[in-house]
Amino acid sequence: MKRVGRWTWMLLTLLLLLCTTAFAETIECGSIELEQPVEVTFEAYNRLQYTLTAPIDGTRVKFEWLSDNKHLVRLYMNGEQVSTTGGFYTLHEENTIRVSAASSDLIPLTVRFVLHEYRNDEQEPNDVIPTELHDGDSVKFVLDGGDTDRFTITTEKPGQDIALTFSGFNYADRTAFSLFWNNRGWEIEKNGTVFLHTGEPGTYQFSLSKSGSGEISRSMEIHLLDGDENELNDTKETATPLPIGTDAAFSIGGINDEDWFSFEAVPEEGKSKIYTLRLLDFDPENSETVSYKIYAPDGSVVAGNSTSSRHTRVFSCSQQGQYAVRLYPKEKYDYYSKKFNFSIQRAALRIRVEEGGDDPYESNDTWLDAAYIEPGQLISHVLNSGDTDWYCFTVPEDHMTLHVSSDCAGVSAGVYTGRDLAEYGESAKIIWSGIDKSANNLYWKLDEKGLYYIRLSGGSSEKICSTMISLLPPDEIEDNDVWYRATPLYEEFVQAFDLSVLNDTEWFRFTVPEGSQKVLLLDVTKTDTGDDPFDRAFADFSLYREAYFNGQDDSSLYQFRLETTNGPTSKRCSWNLEPGTYYLSAAPFGAERVQTLSIGYKILTQLDNDTIATAAPLTEKVWQDVWQDVWQKGYFSIGEHKAGEVVQIQHDEGGSKPDGSIDVYDADGKRITYSFDANFSFRIPADGVYYLEVPASIKFSENGPTRTTRIRYYTHNDKIGVTETITTRPNESVFLDVWFSPDISLSVESEVENLTYDRETGYLTAPNTPEGSADLVFSNGSPEGNKNRIEAVTHVIWSEKLLSGVSISNAPQSLSVGSSVQLEAAVTPDDYIGRVSWESSDTSVLRVLSNGKVVAVGQGEAVITASIGEATSSVTITVTGEQPSESGLTGVSLDRYTLTLYAGEEAEQLTATLKPEGTEATIRWTSSNQTAATVSQDGKVTPLAAGVTVVTAAAGDYRASCIVTVQPERVRVTGIRFEEPTHTLMMGSTVTLQPIIAPDDATVKNLTWVSSDEQTATVSRTGIVTALSVGETTITATTVDGGYSAEIKIIVTAAAQLGDVNGDGYIDAADALLCLRASVGLITLTPEQEAAADVNHDGLIDAGDAILILRYDARLIPSLN
To answer: I need a labelling partner for 258 at 20 to 30 A (CA). Which of 406, 524, 735, 897 fits?
Structure first.
């Protein structure tokens, strides 16, 4: 007889098992209750079914096993299998629980379990039946994966808004949750207020939920706010009638709010009639972005736009009847969250519709007739063939970016300064020294504040054009448009910056310290998203040695381009650099918008370990930072080992899954093993030297330290081992030291559900509950009690208030600008593992990373605070030009870091100081450009010829540099005098004194000024005298070069009428023009005229006074006082 094979028997056995399961009988066992233990006994291979009635629909329960043989049964709740660790489940009104043995071979079998009602906050259960809220309530809620909290609130008035103020977000806990309102979801990711708009009085419901694992705790305050006086007008059918020429109040109350208004248009049959829409009362300090659309009686859209400032729109109506204006919040798409969001302020605004408005700015065909506008104001105007429109506006601060956008095809723009127009008139040049530019989407950076004019031309029809002239504020690091004003970069600190226009260049500088050759890792990231998916702009970068600016280098060292699209992108470079100072320029190319970028760098020692032959050695049990160029791996030697030894490899990517595998090679280059996990082990096959090929990554973070890949190895003889105890805070993740034999198939069991260990990342994560403790068990997978079971246990303690103290160690009392220190936080208890939060009281003085690294960025004093929960510790550090005092040679400093000399004059002494005081070391002096200046070995700098040199004092591995600028040979001052002995001023007026300095070609004409009676008149450092009260005072001017002095008597008389410069009894454009002409020296005003012209009381007659007069004449301000 033919024998039945082994596989045939196995298939028959499996078929028998499946048949047994398929025909198992289901036995109804009645109902069970919450909090009551259930004991289930199997005497035959059957399914046992129980029912459970929920006390409230949506009640959440926690399933707990009471017996250790839980893995021998299969239990399903409402069709969802319950794991051996239990879990959380949401109940319906009626629920079914089915239990069966895993195999008929296990019968008889008894298991026990219990269901607990689970409430993670006081509002539970509210997953189905919502919690009722009232005006003024404040609630704390907890959300975990799968949890939904529902709430209702009843409004009493039409159009009320529900204000939800959320709190509880902080640096250590920024997990977002979702708000659902009217079938749409909104991401809540920071503290703040969200407004929800309602309609008729009634009960409204919203819900909060969170995806993913872990818990978050947040707070919410609820308030009902009344809508504006015209609610309810949320639809076209309920639009508020708006009589022509009258104002109506409105406010965007919240999400889903729309305000509708209607007006009657009466054009003649077959003709069009012009109307003007005005949106008023916008507050620039609390801007509200409003969108609008104007609908004709047939439903077609006549006009539409969005604005966050006072707005005027001229439009034509060709149909007779009721037109409708729809006002609604502007929705903005967030590239990162993939969601839309609003920024609603509930600002009180006004709307008006007027007849007419063909072009409210005419006649403005010359610069003398320019219409004054507020930046950000939409201009509705007509620009037909041959027409030119002039506008003027104020730029309030230096380095702002002008943005002009117009919907008129073919329109071009020229921009002028008011100063140039006043001096040169029509022959004044455009600020960019070229022809007009297209006004469709124009960006240009304006170096100085003041009055500017823009000329629009090139129109070709009677079409109503819409043009927006906006000003964008400078970024925080302006002005750094030239190399010698470069913004300093600090290692690991990410610096944000903008590239606005083609004339905007950003310069940065950094220093590579002395020592072995270094590698600079540079990361440039574009963070803005842009509005146009097809937008492609570029940013060009060039790296220079400092020697380039001394004429010793012919060109840049490296160049690269960051190609930008409408999504975030980055560029990473690595360069081998010698010690020294380097400069990096960034310039836009093809820019049609503002690009927002960030830059950071890290300096590492060059490893040159891209082959086994050049492998870098690892030290056992010591973490090694790993970095390589993009897509490149590095080789590391773990030394010589004996056959049979077990080597543990740990690979830390900061909580992320490694990008690639670690490969193990022998000395012949043969791969022994590999792993993608963060923690693995292998057994040495034969005596010899072994190597690791490691993938690497590097991550730059705005608030955290630059993170590179870390690896380490060690040998051991244990089957399984783990750190015995860990103390941490809720929801924190830390790398866990676990070691095991390669023969072990590692299994992880946790006493609580949310205490987890990720084998792929190597990180342990604590539950997000206020406090607790539990064991995390690592085993070979054998059941408990089994003689083959091998295990190791780590005891994890977490708590919000577990710390009895935190203190900062090794904090210096002072730092010099550009220096850094790594602060350490000592925590009690000392087995705490987790995140310490660091904060600086003044980031313009000290910046601090999340790992406690502090860098001094500006002179002053700041407080650094380390905190963990409620435990805090602070230190005060003063930033000066001196190095901190420590034992041993810690640095060298100079008494000056910049110095200006004149060719042919005497040498200037530079003084170098070694730190700490009393240290003895040889100071070496060098000059980078000895044609400009030489330096002796005692620090005397001798100027020779015009140029720039860097004088360096070096001691040991430390150095300090001074940039020395040598000007051409100067002509010395020989005397000073005033043309007249006295000058009369009216009270409140100013005059700029201009003494005569001899000789005329003296090089340094700087002066110091003193007033003998500052109650009568003061004098500024530039010689501007301001008359304060009737009387007399003597003003003395003294030359800086030579110390020569001259005096003039100032007589102060009574004041004149403010603003009426020409004395005709009117305050108008003629007075403003006199101010402009006087400001550029075309005319000289009498003392009375000067007193009337200085309307802003700053002591100057300039464009600022002219602007105020124009604003007063246009009734934009009520008075000049």
So the answer is: 406
Q: What is the pTM of this model?
A: 0.50
Instruction: Give 56-85 as a DSSP string.
Output: STT-EEEEEE-STTGGGEEEEETTEEPBTT
Instruction: Report the range out of 268-282, 499-513, 743-757, 819-833 with the highest average pLDDT.
Output: 743-757
How confident is the model at residue 383, as a pLDDT?
A: 75
> Which residue reads 């990473």 in tokens?
572
How many CB atoms neighbour CB 133 within 10 A? 20
Q: Going by C-beta distance under 8 Å and a sequence separation of 6 or more, which residues neighbour residue 890?
A: 883, 884, 915, 916, 958
Q: Is the peptide bond before 677 cis (omega within 30 degrees of 0)?
A: no
Query: What are the helix and strand counts (H, E) for the chain?
Result: 5, 93
For 590-633, what is each residue's pLDDT tens digit? 656 677 888 888 877 666 777 888 888 888 888 877 765 444 57
> Strand locations in 1054-1118, DSSP E?
none
702 has pLDDT over 60:
no
What is the rounded distance in angstroms from the CA atom of residue 230 to the CA atom of residue 325? 14
Rg (CA), the chain: 38
Count of other CB atoms within 10 angstroms of residue 870:
9
Measured from the Cβ of residue 845, the count of other Cβ atoms closer than 10 Å reads: 20
- How many CB atoms within 10 Å of residue 508? 22
β-pairing, 332-334 vs 339-341, is antiparallel
How many CB atoms lie under 10 A from the CB of residue 151?
22
The whole-angstrom separation of Cα 950 and Cα 509 is 15
Instruction: Encode burial over 1007-1031: b for 16+ CB neighbours within 10 A, e otherwise.
Output: bebebebeebbbbbeebbbbbbeee
Q: Which of 875, 754, 781 shows the shortest CA–CA distance to 826?
A: 875
Whether the ω angle into residue 363 lies within 30 degrees of 0, i.e. cis, is yes
Do 709 and 627 touch, CB atoms closer than 8 A?
yes
> What are 240's strand-pairing partners?
261
Angle of CA points 90, 91, 94, to nearest 5°: 165
Write down the residue that tokens 């492998």 correspond to.
615
And the tokens for 378? 């939409």
CA distance 281 to 291: 15
What's the number of CA atoms in the CB half-sphere (13 Å) around residue 306? 11
Helix (H) or strand (E) holding 1108: helix 1103-1113
Asked if 1020 and 1001 count as a contact pair (C-beta separation under 8 A), the reply is no
Whether 391 contacts 383, CB under 8 Å: no
Number of other residues whose CB lies within 10 A of the CB of residue 122: 11
Peptide bond into 999 cis (omega under 30): yes
CA distance 476 to 223: 37
Distance CA 868, CA 1002 (A): 63
Which of 777, 770, 805 has the alpha carbon at shortest distance from 792? Answer: 777
Alpha helices in 215-315 (DSSP H): none
Q: What is the pLDDT of residues 1006-1061, one digit of tens each?
A: 888 999 998 899 988 778 888 888 899 999 999 988 889 999 999 887 666 788 88
Q: Dihedral sign, CA of 808, 811, 816, 818?
A: negative
Per-residue burial over 344-371, b if 16 or more Cβ lie within 10 Å, else e, is bbbbebebbbbeebebebeebeebeebb
Distance from the first to the final alpha carbon of the chain: 120
Question: For the segment 737-771, what is each residue's pLDDT rounded down to a tens digit?
Answer: 999 999 988 899 988 888 889 888 899 988 888 88
Tens of pLDDT, residue by residue over 301-314, are 888 877 777 777 77
pLDDT of the residue at 23: 44
pLDDT band, very low/low/confident/very high, at 20 (cuts 50, 70, 90): very low
Structure letter (DSSP) for residue 989: -
